[in-house]
Predict the 3D structure of the following.
Amino acid sequence: MVKKNPRIVIPACGQFTLAKCAIEAGYSRENIFTSDISLYSALLGYLYSGKPISELDFEIIDEEIKKEYQEYTTDYEKVAFLLFVMKKLQIRDDIYFQKIFLDEMINQKEQIVSKLAKLLEQLSAYYKGINFELKDLRAELTQDRVGNNQNTTVIVNPPAFAGGYKKMFAFEKVLKFNFTVDE
């Protein structure tokens, strides 16, 4: 398939699992085109495609988190910290076992962020060369890089429940991502 269709487009790429599968299947990284609309995926996509995260249009609303974020110096550390914050916001502290996990996570924050930053640096080296754009899959599917190109494979695997990203990534009270799509 790679020889017949050397380009692959992966909209709604999420955690970049399908991009990893494409690499492992033999697609050259420069022929892998990914896109997504969440801040989570955009942070990863910018790292993996070599773009500075300062180009992403988001703001940290919570002053304490903003101050802590500004203490980190590399994009890897900044993204690791933001992923930590996102995970922390997803955990419900009103459920006993999740509260235990959350407390432990908070107690080990520096170690977690440090390890995650190192992992993100390794993953960025692995994915180096792929393409990422902040784009809704509907726009992606109508763009020229998919369109009438006979030598392109397209893999679409979007969230399959109502509200999709809004349910998975409801961080508006702490992180505001200035990118909107009508669902």
Summary: Helices lie at 17-25, 39-48, 63-70, 75-90, 96-107, 109-127, 137-142, 164-168. The two ends are 33 Å apart (CA to CA).
